[in-house]
Write a structure and sequence with these properties.
The protein is an alpha/beta fold. It has a single domain (about 5-370), classed as Alpha-Beta Barrel (TIM Barrel), CATH 3.20.20. Helices cover about 40% and strands about 15% of the residues. α7 packs parallel to α8 (about 190-205) and α11 (about 285-295) packs parallel to α13.
Length: about 375
Amino acid sequence: MEGWSRAEARSWSASRPWVCGFNFIPSTAVNFLEMWHADSFDRSTIERELGWAAEIGFNAIRINTHFLVWQHDRDGLLERLDWVMAVAARSGIDTVPCLFDDCGFGGLEPEYGPQPDPLPGVHNSRAVASPGRALVMDRRRWNAFESYLRDIVRTFHTDERVLFWDLYNEPGNRMIFRSDGYSEYEPALTGYSHALMEASFRWARAESPSQPLTVAAWSTPLPGSGLPPYQTETDAAALALSDIVSFHAYWDAAHVSRFIAHLETLDRPMFCTEWMARAVDSRIDDQLPLFRDRGIGCFQWGFVRGRTQTHLPWPAELVATNGGVATADLWFHDVLHQDGRPYDPKEIETVKELTEPYRRKLRNMGETSR
C-alpha cells in the first residue's frame, strides 16, 4: 500500500485546528512499562492530569505503548489504551500512539513486572526502550513485533480519537544518561533499527489506517557546524516514508526556525513531536508562538513533574552539545507540580492565549449543535 500523497496530507491537515500538545506519562509512572502495567495503571492520576491539560488548552497527547505489556497482557493493554483515549477525547484531546522506541536512557533492558524507583538526581533514569534494544537486534523476534504493531493499528485504524500514528521514536538512539555524563550503547543497533522502522511502515499500511503515519527525524548537527539537520540515513528514510513530516528539536528558536525552513521543502503538514528544554533555551514563551505562526503542530516533552524526573537536566555534556548549561535550579522539562500548580505561570498563560481561538471555536460549535 502506498503512502499518502502531498495533496491528501494537506487536505487532512486543513480540516484540523492547530495542534498544541505534549508527551504524556502520568507523574506516578517511572516509565511506560509502569504506566501500562495492570498493577500500576493509575486511572485517577491520568484522569486528573488530562483534566488539567484540557483546562490549560492542550488539544493532543503523544503516548508510548510497550511491546512487553502487549506480549503479556494484550487485552489489558488495548483496554487501557482505549480508556486513556476516551478520557482525553472527552476533553477535546486527540491521541498520538507511539509504538516502538529506542530511547532506553536508563541503560537496562526492559523487564515486565514492577519497575524500580528512579535513581536520585538522574533524568529519566528508568527509561526503557520498546521492545528493547537487545530484542531489536534479534531478528527471530520480529514476527512478534509485526503482530504487536498490526494488532494495535488494526484495533484503532478508523478511530477518530487517533490523530496520527508515530510508529517509532528515535530509531537508533543509543544514549544512556548518567549523573556524571552520558555514554552510548551497542553501535550495531542503528542498522537493525533502520530496518525495523521501514518494516513498521509496511506493517502499518497493510492495516489501511484512516490516519496518517510518521516517524520523526531527530538527528541535528552540532552548533556552528553549518550543516543541515536530519541528514542521517534513517532520518532521510523516515521523512521519505512518512505521510506527514515530524521532527524533534531541542534547540533555541533561531535553530528551530532554520530546521522548519529546511523541512518545509517537503511540502507536507509538519509536527514537532518533541521539544521544550529550558536549559538549552527551548522555551514556551518564544517557540510556541513560532510553531503557531508557522502552522507547525507541536508536542512539548513532559507535563507533570514526577517519577521520570525529567524536570532534572540531561547530563551536562549533552546539554552543552545543544548549546546550554545544565543546572538543577531550572526545570528541564515539565510544566506542572503534582498538585497542579504551574512551574511558571507565564508559560501556562502563553498556552492559554495561543489556544483560546481554537477552544472558542469548539465552544461555539457545541452551542450550535445544542
